[in-house]
Amino acid sequence: MFPRARNEHWRSWLGSLLLLAACQQLAAAGLIKAKAWLAPVLIEQAWTESLERGGLPVKPWPWADTWPVARLRVPGRKLERLVLAGDSGNALAFGPGHALASSALGGAGLAVIGGHRDTHFAFLQHLLPGEQIQLQLPDRSWREYRVETIEVVDSSRQSLARDTEVERLLLVTCYPFDALRANGPLRYVIAARPESAFQMLSRRM
Description:
By secondary structure, the protein is α+β, with helices and mostly antiparallel strands. The chain is about 30% helix and about 25% strand. About 25% of the residues are buried.
């Protein structure tokens, strides 16, 4: 009788342990889904508050190491994305990010916004030359661009040219879009010029 009682005790203990592990996994999965739902709401609120405060940076949550710096819009496709400060992994997990090493958004030079190919920047594969891109800045002003070129760049062999005089906007993501493995060297690069500059260039051509 004693061995049987001991076995039943161990079975009960093991069952409780497995149940606890299952509950922990379910809780972790629920937390991830909650974060995925809540983060965009908090980022949107932070951007609204930033606009109301004259463009001052507002973190979406106290411990965040990034904050919204622009609203990216593709009106022809009814798409909007809030752009975050920086292009670190932490920032890109919540949205496209402005590369701090590039030029300021809306100013002279080459401003670069990066994003993940399978989430926030998956739509880049559908953009076409000539499509309009709009960018709202923290001062509430809007900049309008037109897609000029689309190319695939090998980041291990090429670097993005930096032009400190002409304003250009680059949207960058990993390539191919359906790759099974991430972090390859290929980048899908969409270059856009301000609307006025694009129109002048079109007239010359």
